[in-house]
Write a structure and sequence with these properties.
This protein has 182 residues and is of the alpha+beta class. Helices cover 31% and strands 14% of the residues. The chain is elongated, with a radius of gyration of 27 Å.
Length: 182
Amino acid sequence: MKRPIRPDEQKLWAMVAATVHPKPGREAERLAQALADAKPAEPKKSGGKVADPAARLPLAEAKPAPRPPMRLEVDPIEPRRKHRITRERDVIGARIDLHGMDQARARAALEAFVLRAWDDGWRAVLVITGKGTRGDGVLRRRAPEWLGGPALRGVVAGISEAHRRHGGEGALYVALKRKPRG
C-alpha cells in the first residue's frame, strides 16, 4: 500500500524535477504547467486504503494505460516435435529458398508458400533464409516476424533453427497446425 507524499517530500521532488530538462520535441510546457497547477491534495481514504493517484488528476490529463505491443514472434517448436523433424521422422513436406529476394518479394513468397503447404496438409516445412553477410541477414531476422504476423498466425504452430544438415543458422523449421476437419 502506498502512503501519501508528505509536504517536505513534495518540495524536495519539485526541486529535483526543476533540474531535469526534457529531450527536444517533448511537451515541456504542458508538463511544467501541470506541475505548477497541481495542489497538494489530501489523499482520499476509503476503508483504510489510499485512493488511486490517477483519480486525482483532471480528466483531461488522465490517459488510459498503454496496450502491450502485439507479439509478432512465434513460439518455438516443442522439443520432441523438433527432434522428430530433425531426424526426419516427421516428413519435411516442402522447402523454400529465399536467397536473392528482397524483403517484399520474400515475404509474399513465404506467406503464399506456408499457406499452400498448410492447405496441402503438410505439418512441417523448411524455410531457407541464408545467413546474410556477417551472419546477420535481413531475411533471417525478419522471417520469424513474418511467420508470427496476422496472415500466418492461425497456421504456424512454431519455428526453430534448423539442424546443420538442413541449413543450420540459415534455415528454419516451421511446424504447421493441423487443418480443421470438415
